Amino acid sequence: MWKGREYEFGNTLGLIKGIDLSSNILTGMIPREIVELDGLISLNLSRNFLTGRITSEIGTLQALEVLDLSENQLCGGIPSSISSITSLNFLNLSNNNLSGKIPIGRQLDTINASAYEGNPNLCGFPLPKKCWGDETTQNPIMNKGRGQVGMQDEEDGFITQGFYANAAFGFVVGFWGVFGTLLLKR
């Protein structure tokens, strides 16, 4: 019973909105069952001794707004499913042993690099460390597609060959649009 209402044991997991077990000297792996808390808004397991990987099903926590797993001993990659959490507005995965490329997604594009510091084997935006095979470090906010030349391309800046080609094409079309009309009116 809670607040005058009676709940069955199996139906109460959705009532849990926040878990803060930071600085509790917890050890072991993060239980995979954490993803069954579909109403969870805040999860803070920072400053413990947690090991293992972040569950690949973390993306099922669609209500999650705050995720802090910093200062543990987590390893492996950051699951790509984390990019599907559209309500996520605070993420801290710093000071772990995470590795691989940081996933790209609408919410993750707004996360500061400090959220990933202390993971020497992480690479990709927003960190300055490029991943193997990446030609340039690009800001996914300004450059959504791979291989496209964007405003944040570090090598070319704002001016690219495509810019010059489009400017020349625009000039020719504009010039002949005006001059051609005057010429035909005569």
Itemize the secondary structure elements and their pairings.
Blueprint: E1 18-20, E2 27-29, E3 42-44, E4 49-52, E5 66-68, E6 73-76, E7 90-92, E8 97-101, E9 121-123, H1 161-185
Parallel strand pairs: 1-3, 2-4, 3-5, 4-6, 5-7, 6-8, 8-9
Membrane topology: Single-pass type I membrane protein
Family: Belongs to the RLP family.
Main location: membrane
Structure description:
This protein is of the alpha/beta class and 186 residues long. The protein has a domain of 120 residues: Leucine-rich repeat, LRR (right-handed beta-alpha superhelix) (Alpha-Beta Horseshoe). It has one helix and nine strands; from the N terminus they run E-E-E-E-E-E-E-E-E-H. The strands form two sheets. The chain has a five-stranded parallel sheet with strand order 2-4-6-8-9, with no helix packed on it. The termini are far apart. About 10% of the residues have low confidence. It is a single-pass type I membrane protein. This is Leucine-rich repeat-containing N-terminal plant-type domain-containing protein. Its main location: membrane. It holds the Pfam family LRR_1. Keywords: Glycoprotein, Leucine-rich repeat, Membrane, Receptor, Repeat, Signal, Transmembrane, Transmembrane helix.
Beta strands, count: 9
N-to-C span: 90 Å
| Rg over C-alpha atoms, rounded to the nearest angstrom | 24 Å
Going by CATH, what is the homologous superfamily of the domain at 13-132? Ribonuclease Inhibitor
